Amino acid sequence: MGAEWSFLTNHARVLVCIAHDPGLRLRDIGEVLRLTERTVFGIVTDLTAAGYVVKDRDGRRNRYRIQHHLPLRQPLGREATIGELLALLVASN
């Protein structure tokens, strides 16, 4: 069999986890995605530095807010937003 692969990058997968639960700990995201906590920390740092995620302190934990209005980094023919992508990937409750 070939190597494992995914349609989504780890950055997109972490963003989907945050969209599902903005209060998840990095350790929990890592467990769900089978990534190390250090890898998740680096990805969240990238997403925060790019402005896609805002980190808020909530007691001893962090909560994350996704900036849904921002465009994707790589246009898909027209300027789609993060919110439009997440609407496709995250089931509404």
Automatic annotation (TrEMBL):
Origin superkingdom: Bacteria
Matches recorded under InterPro entries: HTH_MarR-typ, WH-like_DNA-bd_sf, WH_DNA-bd_sf
Domain HTH marR-type positions: 10-61
Pfam families: MarR_2
Recorded coiled-coil stretches: none
Protein name per its UniProtKB record: HTH marR-type domain-containing protein
Native species: Terrabacter terrae
